[in-house]
């Protein structure tokens, strides 16, 4: 019997989304560390130039730090996407598949209570 | 889910919203909440909870608990029609149908605003005490007044079906489908009623509608069985012109072509085999396999053999 492929899920997607904690969280961690490192580099660069008195008005962030920070942002986006939990089913058919005939046909306003229930379950108090 | 007043209260609230009549579970959890004085925790939800518990207790013959719930509700809501309804149900429980009927009749005559819950109880008492014709007349009068009550139409369909009047049952279900077109369970019920009324083309149409709404899981297995049965029946009767009765339809539903019927037969077979294949996670077979895990593997294989043989028409 051939295995049925779930609609909308590939094997690769399953492999990635079934371990959200590991890959996603590590990516987010690396991105956070990279961000912190980039921020610290900026601060260090600024304080060094101030100490040397070479801080000009057209001072810009060094290009490697800028790339590092952009890289941190991209890593964080990827990590957050991978870390997201599996999407809930919102289709009508998936909701209806969970219900049963008993609850659709219960007709509680017309329900009779005078049946063998009191013989089977009663404790003789009636 | 742990055993706590809050979690049990959530479960019972869900039973209330979804109209699930799980009396044993309600009683067990309700007694748990009552014993731990959880009524205060429930706040304003305590009153619907007591009503639900009273009904569940009566369902299981526990008059003591039902009396306690009803007396608490009576103290809080003096002279409320809902409480009177519960008291009437208690009379029904004791088998005192005449007393209950007299009580309901008195309330209905006095109250200018007709309490429809009491009217429904009256119809239920008439049905329980065997006065079916009176019950049907009363129910039809009720439905003239309150058309948009799918529960009442379903009750009418059930009464007709119990009297083997399947075409009338089908017409009641058609009103249900007008009111609630998106529910596959009512479509399935209409399909099975049509099949029992021997209107096979109409039954096939309804079965296909129900499996269109829910392709797999839930009640779809039942729908696919219906498609299979209808297709097989129509295919076996098509070649002979003498069998015009079998393919005739009281509702004059047109018959699909033999080619389409063969395709539907094939599709239904494939869907049923898939539903019972043990490799898929949500299949019917895997559910039963987990329940009957102690059964030998050969028994399950034999059952599958029987199913396959039936599907292939041997």
TrEMBL record, chain A:
It is found in: Endomembrane system. This is Membrane magnesium transporter. Its main location: membrane. The keyword Transmembrane applies. Belongs to the membrane magnesium transporter (TC 1.A.67) family. It is a multi-pass membrane protein. The keyword Acyltransferase does not apply. Keywords: Membrane, Transmembrane, Transmembrane helix. InterPro entries: MMgT. It comes from the Eukaryota. GO terms for cellular component: endomembrane system. The chain crosses the membrane at residues 27-46, 66-84.
Automatic annotation (TrEMBL), chain B:
It is found in: Endoplasmic reticulum membrane. SUPFAM superfamilies: TPR-like (SSF48452). The keyword Membrane applies. InterPro entries: EMC2-like, TPR-like_helical_dom_sf, TPR_EMC2, TPR_rpt. Keywords: Endoplasmic reticulum, Membrane, Repeat, TPR repeat. SMART domains: TPR. It is a peripheral membrane protein. It holds the Pfam family TPR_EMC2. Residues 86-194 form the EMC2 TPR-like domain. GO terms for cellular component: EMC complex. Belongs to the EMC2 family. Part of the endoplasmic reticulum membrane protein complex (EMC) that enables the energy-independent insertion into endoplasmic reticulum membranes of newly synthesized membrane proteins. Component of the ER membrane protein complex (EMC). This is ER membrane protein complex subunit 2. It comes from Hydnum rufescens UP504.
